[in-house]
Design brief:
By secondary structure, the protein is an alpha/beta fold. It has a single domain, classed as Sugar-phosphate isomerase, RpiB/LacA/LacB (Ribose 5-phosphate Isomerase B, Chain: A), CATH 3.40.1400.10. The chain contains 6 helices and 5 strands, in the order E-H-E-H-E-H-E-H-E-H-H. The protein has helices at about 10-25, 40-55, 70-75, 90-95, 115-125, 130-145; strands spanning about 1-5, 30, 60-65, 85, 105. A 5-stranded parallel sheet has the order 2-1-3-5-4, with helices on both faces. Strand 1 (about 1-5), helix 1 and strand 2 form a beta-alpha-beta unit. Helix 2 (about 40-55) crosses helix 3 (about 70-75) and helix 4 runs parallel beside helix 5. The longest helix has 13 residues, at about 10-25. The mean pLDDT is about 100. The structure holds D-ribose. The site of D-ribose has 8 residues, from helix 3. D-ribose binds near residues 42 and 65.
């Protein structure tokens, strides 16, 4: 498996932690940073990550900012991206099973009730169910195409 990830200055430590975990799982990570404390704008990192993901060859993508909110809002403006702001294992699992999310968003300053590593694993280990859920995703795609 292969993933691309990017973050702003608000989530450097969590990004490093998730990256290390992915690599431990044998998942290749294309890490786009930032790994520097200087402020960067989360919409720029969202676009960078989304555009790289959409080139193809990736199984999923991850974005992070202080809350996970701003970067997920920005990423979801990009056609083809279904970014899920996940708060626990349940939402992460369902984001794959029902929404076939191709991007997850985490917040580096959020106090998660569960270890974010566990939340990430719940997404990776789940499978999209298709069927009626595909029909609903097709409606999201139609919205992107202004239909
Ligand atoms: C940056 O200070 C912060 O606003 C950003 O990381 C994020 O939390 C926005 O949603």
């Amino acid at each position: 498996m292969k993933c691309v990830m990017a973050n702003d200055h608000g989530a450097i430590e969590l990004a490093k932690k998730l990256k290390a975990h992915l690599e431990e799982r044998g998942i290749e990570v294309n890490y786009l940073g930032t790994d520097k404390n200087e402020s960067v704008d989360y919409p720029d990192k969202a676009v960078e990550c989304a555009k790289e993901y959409l080139k193809g060859g990736y199984d999923f993508s991850i974005v992070l900012c202080g809350t996970g909110i701003g970067i997920s809002i920005a990423a979801n403006k990009i056609k083809g991206i279904r970014c899920a702001l996940v708060m626990d294992s349940y939402s992460a699992e369902m984001s794959k099973r029902h929404n076939n999310a191709n991007m997850l968003s985490f917040g580096g300053r959020v106090e998660y009730k569960e270890d974010p590593v566990k939340i990430l694993d719940a997404y990776i280990d789940a499978t999209f169910e298709g069927g009626r859920h595909q029909k609903r995703i097709d409606k999201i795609t139609a919205l992107e195409n202004n239909q």
